[in-house]
Design goal:
The complex is a heterodimer. Helix content of chain A is 16%, strand content 56%. In chain A, strand 4 and strand 5 form a beta hairpin. Chain A starts with a helix and ends with a helix. Chain B is mainly beta. The longest helix of chain B is centred in the N-terminal third of the chain and has 14 residues. The chains are: A alpha+beta, B mainly beta.
């Protein structure tokens, strides 16, 4: 694969290939979800977010802790989830205005179960990384920026009961600004699962 | 190859094979269904060219693509036919045909039928390919569909705008919204649609030129369409209205830069048929339309106000026998060019006689013969085509075709045909255009053969070869030089006439269903100019010699699918920009290197197929992707499309 990438002179490929590798390899070893289980349950959850690294942004901004909310369901293979992650950034000086980031994304992950209530998972997310700058000198239009963000994620889940899980995840997010924003985040939180109501299955199936 | 001897061969072939029937396999025809278009993430109508390696396409702004079908023409002559529900409409304006001007979205389309070779189709003979948009048939009761699409391209500065890493902003792209409604009764139907699209020019390759000619960098398009259908008087009758206004930047080859302008397209057409009995049918149509470009927001002195009106009428009889059908028709076309600021009023009239004979020689051999003759003033043209299809057995078919086409210069309705007496546009001083005005009737001979093996639905392979010999063609030979201080191109253009050149094309399409869930397609095309002057060969370098398209579809359920696609095009060279590398200090290059681009799209239906969502990613490895030496670069981009289908809600 590496030689192919080099031959094709693919730029910016490392994260993309890593994610494609995950998608391609993981289902071979993981527990396959029968198609009939797709959308059979809904999981809603929330996480507290610690930002481990903000890459080059560190020179100009400091990140604060954030929060994350998600809704997840079994898919034809693995799980899919939609999540929104909020992380605020504070400027290190007056020249660098504070901004809030909102990463809304669609994710997919595959679970590997060790026992009935313990599993690890790996997956990927893609979405829009929106930035809202606290800068009165910019127009409303320019105050809001958004860019494509791609993330690789791995985590651990422990089932407290048949409905409630505790999860810890780590992800590496690359935002495709002209100079990349690279964030390493750790998530910890709780989720609640319930059988999908019939009306909801009718909508999504 | 001498055309008079080929005419004789064609004549002999016609005499000995004067019978044909409805063909099953046509190597020059390709159909894309609505599902295929949506799965491939088609946003703009002009994205359709992307699906076939037998189209060549170019774009300066990155979202309006201009196409050439089957190497039948060149980018500087955009003259394939555009039809809507079999009704011809004119969108050509001075050799530019932008199908995005049509006032409907991908949501309205049932299928797209494309022809890559000379053909008489629905009473229209063309040497340059056909694209026929078949719109959705209205369902009982009231149906309402809506579409919203939004896209984002990578490369924004983000927070780095406040740092030493600041870079230009890249705005959102691909904003398209559309809504359409339809209703149907026993003997009638009605349908209407509205389309709105908006974009901003921000690409570094384009923005400086735009800022040199305009106070604006925004483009937007608004269009409306209405269709009425009636099953009366022993036949079906359809009335189509189209109206589009598009504020944008229109690249003029003569000017060498973009013109800020308001493009207006209008079309009204009535077509239909009367079935006299089981065997005889009368088809007719009458259409009128106009295309114009009005000035807007320009910073420089340009007057671009030519309005081109077209009127068409056609009447034909169709006789269907037991093993043959025959068609004979007469049509009238009129082009009228007008300018508002100066005395300019030119008109060209064309009278055409055409016919076709389709005959089944046996259960295995089908043949079709078509002809058309056109008269304009004292000149006339003759066109003809003969097709043979051998159905060898259930799996194997063979196709051959031979065609001879002539094109009257005045039929082109382009800059050169309108400028015979007065100039159709007023260009600035820094353009220098030279032509001796000695244009003649272009001639073309095409010979094609194709083979198809099909064991549907699992496997299908089709390969073909075409040879095209052209005579008496003219070609624009511009030299664009970049003025870095003005951020504009200066143009020196001359025209060469009476050019002879031969082109050969090859293609191969393979479709394979791997399993219940997976299927894939591989398409390849090759084209090369094998004879011609050096000027013509230079023009042909603008086309990639090799093109490959591969797609892998994964469909685990009826309501969800993932499509991954790879697109490859070999390098191209644009001789008219041969000096820009040094003139622009390497900002531009006249050579576009090999391009390999990967796309990924995911489609999901919701709510019993009432909502369809497509999330797609183009150029996911962020490779070099652009289609014109001075055109926008298309980096990794993400689009979200949402379609809503409320079918037969009040039935």
């Amino acid at each position: 694969m590496n030689s192919l990438c080099m031959k094709l002179n693919l730029h910016n490929i490392k994260l993309s290939m890593c994610i494609i590798g995950l998608i391609g390899i993981v289902p071979l070893s993981a527990q396959q979800v029968p198609y009939t289980k797709a959308f059979s349950e809904i999981v809603i959850g929330g996480n507290y977010v610690w930002n481990g690294s903000i890459g080059d942004l560190d020179e100009y901004w400091t990140s604060d802790h954030g929060v994350d909310g998600f809704i997840q369901t079994p898919f034809y293979a693995g799980d899919i989830k939609i999540s929104l992650t909020y992380i605020p950034f504070t400027g290190n000086d007056a020249y660098h205005p504070d901004f809030n980031s909102y990463y809304i994304n669609l994710g997919w992950k595959e679970n590997l179960y060790f026992s009935n209530n313990m599993s690890i998972n790996v997956g990927a997310k893609i979405g829009s990384f929106m930035m809202s700058f606290q800068d009165d000198t910019l127009s409303t239009f320019r105050n809001q920026e958004s860019e494509i963000g791609l993330a690789a994620e791995a985590g651990f889940k422990f089932g407290v009961s048949s409905e409630i899980d505790i999860q810890i995840n780590a992800n590496f997010l690359s935002v495709f600004t002209s100079r990349r924003i690279k964030l390493f985040n750790i998530f910890a939180g709780v989720s609640y699962a319930f059988t999908s109501p019939k009306w909801m299955r009718k909508i999504v199936e | 190859m001498k055309h008079h001897s080929l005419k004789l061969i064609l004549y002999i072939l016609l005499m000995i094979q004067f019978s044909v029937s409805a063909q099953t396999f046509d190597s020059n025809r390709e159909v894309f269904t609505s599902e295929e278009l949506k799965a491939a993430g088609i946003l703009n109508l002009s994205d359709i060219y992307r699906l076939s390696v037998r189209w060549d396409r170019t774009s300066i702004d990155g979202y309006n693509f201009l196409g050439v079908a089957g190497a039948q023409s060149v980018y500087q002559k955009q003259n394939f036919l555009v039809l809507i529900n079999d009704q011809r409409t004119d969108i050509n304006y001075l050799d530019e045909q932008n199908v995005n001007l049509l006032p409907f979205t991908i949501d309205n389309i049932d299928s797209v039928i494309i022809f890559y070779s000379p053909e008489l189709y629905k009473g229209e003979y063309t040497n340059n390919g056909i694209i026929n948009f078949i719109l959705n048939k209205p369902a009982d009761g009231l149906s309402i569909n809506a579409l919203q699409s939004i896209g984002n391209e990578v490369g924004d500065p983000g927070p780095y705008i406040y740092t030493k890493y600041d870079s230009p902003n890249v705005d959102k792209l691909g904003y398209i919204a559309g809504v359409n409604f339809s209703s149907k009764g026993n003997e009638w139907f009605i349908a209407g649609s509205f389309k709105f699209a908006e974009n901003f020019v921000t690409d570094p390759a384009v923005i400086d030129r735009i800022q040199s000619v305009s106070w604006n960098n925004k483009t937007n398009l608004s269009g409306a369409s209405a269709m009425l259908g009636l099953n009366k008087f022993s036949g079906q009758h359809n009335l189509i209205f189209n109206y589009t206004e598009a504020d944008g930047f229109y690249f003029s080859r003569q000017f060498g830069n973009e013109i800020p302008g308001k493009r207006i397209y209008k079309h009204i057409g009535l077509d239909g048929n009367f079935k006299l009995n089981r065997q005889i049918r009368i088809n007719y149509y009458i259409t009128t339309g106009s295309n114009s470009l009005l000035n807007r927001d320009e910073k420089i002195d340009l007057t671009y106000d030519l309005e081109v009106n077209s009127t068409r009428g056609r009447l034909e009889g169709l006789y269907t026998g037991d093993n043959f059908n025959a068609r004979l028709g007469i049509s009238y076309n009129k082009y009228e060019g007008r300018r508002s600021d100066i005395q300019f009023n030119e008109t060209y009239n064309f009278l055409k006689l055409y016919g076709s004979l389709v005959f089944g020689l046996s259960d295995f051999v089908e043949q079709r013969l078509t002809f058309q003759t056109t008269k304009n003033l004292d000149d006339y043209s003759v066109n003809g085509r003969l097709v043979n299809v051998w159905t060898i057995n259930n799996n194997n078919s063979l196709f051959t075709s031979i065609s001879y086409s002539e094109n009257l210069f005045n039929e082109n309705s382009n800059y050169w045909s309108w400028s015979q007496n007065e100039m159709p546009v007023t260009l600035p001083e820094f353009t220098n255009i030279v032509s001796d005005g000695n244009f003649s009737k272009a001639k073309s001979l095409g010979i094609g053969a194709a083979y198809k093996y099909s064991s549907q639905p699992l496997f299908e392979i089709e390969s073909g070869i075409n040879f095209i010999s052209n005579e008496n063609n003219y070609m624009e030979v511009p030299v664009y030089s970049y003025d870095k201080d003005k951020s504009l191109f200066n143009t020196m253009m001359y025209v060469i006439n009476d050019q002879h050149y031969n082109v050969v094309t090859l293609y191969s399409d393979i479709k394979h269903k791997i399993s219940r869930v997976f299927s894939h397609k591989l398409k390849y095309s090759y084209q090369s100019i094998i004879e011609g002057s050096s000027e013509i060969k230079n023009v042909w370098l603008e086309f990639p010699e090799h093109k490959v398209y591969y797609s892998l579809l994964m469909q685990p359920s009826e309501t969800f699918s993932i499509l991954a696609a790879l697109r490859y095009a070999s390098s191209t060279e644009w001789y008219e920009y041969r000096y820009i590398s040094s003139q622009s200090f390497n900002r531009y290059s006249n050579k576009i290197e090999n391009q390999l681009v990967a796309d990924l799209s995911m489609q999901k239906w919701f709510w019993s197929k009432k909502i369809w969502v497509n999330l797609m990613f183009n150029n996911i490895f962020n490779q070099q992707e652009y289609y014109h030496p001075i055109g926008a670069s298309l980096d990794f981009r993400m689009y979200l499309q949402i379609h809503i289908y409320l079918q037969s809600i009040l039935s």
